[in-house]
Amino acid sequence: MKSFMDKKNTKELLEYIIQSIDLIQKRFLAVKQSDDFMKDDEGLEKLDSISMRLQSIGEALKNIYKTDPHVLEAIAPKTYWSDIIKFREVISHHYIDIDSEVVYEICHDELDALKEKISVALKLER
User: Fold this and answer.
1) Whole-prediction pTM value?
2) DSSP label at 115?
3) Nearest Cα to Cα of residue 88 among 107, 62, 65, 112
4) Distance of CA 45 to the CA centre of its chain
5) How far apart are the C-alpha atoms of 111 and 46, rounded to whole Å?
6) Where are the beta strands (DSSP E) in the chain?
7) Which residues are CB-contacts of 17 (< 8 A; sequence separation ≥ 6)?
8) Confidence bin at 1 (pLDDT 50/70/90)
């Protein structure tokens, strides 16, 4: 059975990733340190919702990689994309092991660069 993401084309998946990054960044605005995720229910909700979006970004990249790997590899090496896809696996299958500090670091240090790379890929797809 095909998933919703399997039915999307590369351009749609890239657009979805940009939208997801925008949502994550909006939700992350109030987070000043990794402990903010763990201090109360609101923090845990942010951690959960951000993790779900990170998971879906990994899923979208996994689907793009299956059908159009050249689109991604034209922008960054396979290992870059593989690390994001592997993190999706951690969220999907080992959520109990999620480290709020890792999620914080991804949001704080990595999302802008990912968004830039995806924007370049999107320009190549148009």
Assistant:
1) 0.90
2) H
3) 62
4) 17
5) 16
6) none
7) 57, 60, 61, 114, 118
8) very low
**What are the structure tokens assigned to 84, written together?**
């994001």
Distance between CA atoms of 71 and 27, rounded to whole angstroms? 29
- What are 93's two structure tokens? 């299958």
Task: Pick the closest to residue 28 from 95, 92, 115, 88 (CA basis).
Answer: 115
Sign of the C-alpha dihedral computed for residues 64, 20, 116 and 93 taken in this order: negative
Express each pLDDT in 73-118 by its tens digit: 999 999 999 999 999 988 887 666 688 999 999 999 999 999 999 9
Question: pLDDT tens across 40-81, in order?
Answer: 999 999 999 999 999 999 999 999 999 999 999 999 999 999
Give 108: exposed, middle or buried? Use CB within 10 Å, 0-12, 13-18, 19+: middle
